[in-house]
Amino acid sequence: MSGILGYGAYVPYYRLTRQAMGSGRGERAVASYDEDAVSMAVEAGREACSNNENAIDTLIFATTSAPYAEKLNSAAITAALDLPASVRSMELGGNSRMGLAGLLLAADLGVAGKTSLVCAGDVVVGGPGGARERDSGDGAVAFITGSEDQAIARVLGQASSTTEVLDVWRLPGDQFARQWEERFGVEVLAPVSLDTAQRALTAAGVAPDQLTSVILDATNKRDVAGIPKALGLESGQVADMLADNLGRCGAAHAGLVLANVLDTAQPGDKILVLSTADGCDAVVLEVTDNIKSSGRPKRTVQHWLASSNNELAYNSYLKWRGILPFEPPRRPDPDRPSGPIMKRHERWKYAFCGSRCECGQAHLPPQRACVKCRSIDKMKEERFADEPCKVTTFTLDHLAYSLQPPVISSVVDFDVGGRLACELTDADPGEVKIGNRLEMTFRRFYTGQGVHNYFWKARPQR
Questions:
Q1: Which of 15, 75, 111, 376 could form a Cys-Cys staple with 310, CB 3.0–4.6 A?
Q2: Can you give the residue range of the structural domain that contains 191?
Q3: Are the CB atoms for 43 and 337 separated by under 8 Å?
Q4: Cβ 114 vs Cβ 146: under 8 Å
């Protein structure tokens, strides 16, 4: 047997109200212009790994919005989380139930004695004015899986189905996904979903009335709408799918709702998680006593949802997604360098490792010569990604090219020592002050000559 050892979630700072999109109530989560599926997966992975002492030997990344069509996106996640190079990496994509599929795969690896980190992240884009744009959201989740004795939630049973049906699809080069008429999908996927749920419950030896929470995720919510009645569930057993203030986050959504349930779960709770898209995956979990002492992240899903800004303009959102043309700044955009430098500075650039001299002085970026005692090559490498910092000085640049002007350029001082000139993100320029508390976040700076360049920015503490 195996189970979940720890987990973490991430919801981006910005929200777009459905009223701003033209219809509906509530809001959807929106990844910033400098975020993508990889950078959000890193944020969720940091949360999951923050109190995990187990050595990760497998990384699984699931997404339908991979930044690279052909290149191992999980390699950037591995480097940013400072995982060892011996980690085995794999990616799942092409379908939004791959997030849950990745968790099931990792659970199977746990039976074989492997400790896996499963990250799922998605930036879901829909055609302007459509249901996918309105009802979707952006976010990420991560789970650490391993042996049952350390699990905060153990796997009792699982089941899967794969169905060839024209449900949601997107061809190479398509900007937006397409979805067939909903009633045809329901005719096929509704019975498949119910059958998969029943088989998972049978495998687990759990009756429907023993379930504390039931998570029903689907590309079309009508595909799973009949399951509560068919299983005889009470309304209190069906989990909140976070439609009002998050939206469906593609491959990450089933896991995000599971994380939200685990945030308040008690030992003995039994949870059914189901995700439907071109078939169905389902798993039954039982929360253990370990959840009282370990496994929960410092920031809950509700914390991320509450830490938000819902004043994003609709035209800004369209600009960030490359849907709306806009006038660039009236000065030349400098040439962007491509990738050869990336490997030479991997641990500095991705893992955000500086150096500390034997005299105690910290250096960012890492140095050979100490600015304090002048010694040479007396340094030890040190990771600063999770250390808090504060604004020492800053300036607002209204001329620099940015999808969210003005650029906030700052010098920050770390509590553990060390000073860095960096860019602020997720910040209101009018509220930035010297002394503001900050934390580091992994972001995509730009794309140059077909290469995504990732590095770290600072953001107000969330």
A1: 15
A2: 2-320
A3: no
A4: yes
Whose structure tokens read 């079309």?
220
- Domain identity same for 440 and 402: yes
Q: Where are any strands of DSSP class E within 11-57?
A: 14-17, 27-30
The CB density around residue 357, as the number of other CB atoms within 10 Å, is 21
Compute the distance between CA of residue 172 and CA of residue 117 in angstroms, rounded to an integer: 29
What's the DSSP call for residue 223? G
Question: What would you report as the CA-atom Rg of the chain, rounded to the nearest whole angstrom?
Answer: 22
Identify whether 267 is preceded by a cis peptide bond (ω within 30 of 0).
no
Residue 82's pLDDT is 94
CA nearest to 235, candidates 262, 213, 267, 258: 213
Whether 177 contacts 126, CB under 8 Å: yes
CATH number of the domain at 236, please.
Answer: 3.40.47.10
**Same domain flag for 275 and 366:** no
Q: In which residue are the tokens 């000073």 written? A: 419
Number of domains in the chain: 2
pLDDT over 70, % of the chain: 96
